[in-house]
Design brief:
Elements: E1 5-12, E2 21-28, E3 33-37, H1 44-52, E4 59-64, E5 67-68, H2 73-78, E6 80-83, H3 95-105, H4 112-121, H5 137-149, E7 155-159, H6 167-182, E8 186-191, H7 194-200, E9 203-208, E10 211-217, H8 218-224, E11 227-234, E12 250-252, E13 258-264, H9 272-281, E14 286-293, H10 296-304
Parallel strand pairs: 3-8, 3-9, 6-7, 7-8
Antiparallel strand pairs: 1-2, 1-4, 4-5, 9-10, 11-13, 11-14, 12-13
Length: about 300
């Protein structure tokens, strides 16, 4: 099956500074929701700009449903809807006028029924005659989404669509994205919100300092969420792990006062009971126990952790 988006050896370097985007190879499947996570400045917006044809790649190419975004720009762009981070729109136009105009920009004939459906889906119908300048920030964000959907794109890019908006809009967005996916639209979402990716995505990519460091099925990431850690505070420090303990799952702190035992909570048995018996047999006295479960945020932070050199 042809990918909805094929990103082939794409990189971007501006005239000053380090590469904004290192070599990226990625295929995004038709009808999937792909979440791209990364800190500020990681390269998310640059990659989306290249995919939409608004930023020229230094190397490589991007195909949208087989159409090159540079050589066949019009055909590729017609298939793409983009919701940018910035709240740029025509302040003195009405909601209806600006959304309808966006449809015409892509060469589509007027379709008032479709525009009405989009506005109703985004709770904008009652504001259809209001000027953009009179709307709240959350309503302006909804207008941007409506403009991106006006020409019925097959691929929708959402660049931090819920950043700084209220919980109601975020929930409405989740409902709308699921509905679009049911209609066969491919969704690419960038977000700072881990729960947003966890709620909606089929696959998750993590980008840091211009490098795509992880692309994985959400189900596999959720399997990794089953990892738990048991921390064991010791009554007296240990110089080393006693013999007969599971060294591959057990770590001793530098001061010898804490053991950390990692295990899969979804597996048939945690092995904690056996561990406790072996510790008692080895004469290890326990002061306290605590368990904690890793989260998707833990995995994300670990992947993008910036190991800065010492000053």
């Amino acid at each position: 099956m042809q990918p909805a988006i094929s990103i082939q050896t794409v990189s971007k370097t501006y005239k000053s500074g380090p590469p904004a985007l290192k070599t990226v190879d990625l295929d995004i499947r038709p009808g999937e929701i792909f979440a791209l996570l990364g800190p500020n400045g990681a390269g998310k917006t640059t990659l989306i700009g290249i995919c939409c044809g608004t930023v020229r790649a230094s190397t490589g190419r991007v195909l949208v449903e087989g159409h090159d975004v540079v050589r066949d720009y019009k055909a590729a762009r017609r298939r793409v809807g983009l919701v940018p981070q910035e709240l740029h729109t025509d302040s003195f136009e009405s909601v209806w006028a600006t959304v309808s105009f966006s449809r015409g920009l892509f060469g589509h004939a007027p379709n008032p029924a479709h525009i009405e459906r989009v506005l109703r889906d985004l709770s904008l119908w009652e504001k259809r005659d209001a000027k953009i300048i009179t709307l709240s920030g959350g309503m302006k964000r909804r207008v941007l989404i409506a403009k991106a959907l006006a020409h019925e794109p097959r691929v929708l890019f959402l660049d931090e669509p819920t950043a700084g908006v209220d919980v109601e809009l975020r929930r409405d967005m989740w409902v709308l994205v699921r509905r679009l996916r049911e209609q066969g639209v491919t969704i690419v979402l960038t977000t700072h919100y881990i729960e947003e990716a966890e709620e909606m995505a089929d696959r998750i990519g993590v980008i840091n300092r211009g490098e795509l460091v992880l692309v994985e099925e959400k189900a596999e990431l959720m399997r990794r969420l089953g990892k738990k850690r048991l921390t064991i505070d010791l009554d007296a420090p240990l110089a080393a792990l006693p013999d007969g303990l599971p060294a591959e799952q057990l770590a001793l702190s530098e001061d010898g006062r804490r053991l950390t035992y990692s295990f899969d909570a979804k597996a048939g048995g945690s092995g904690i009971g056996t561990l406790m018996e072996r510790l008692r047999a080895a004469g290890v006295r326990i002061a306290d126990l605590n368990t904690e479960q890793s989260t998707l945020e833990d995995i994300f932070v670990e992947l993008v952790h910036d190991e800065r050199p010492a000053a």
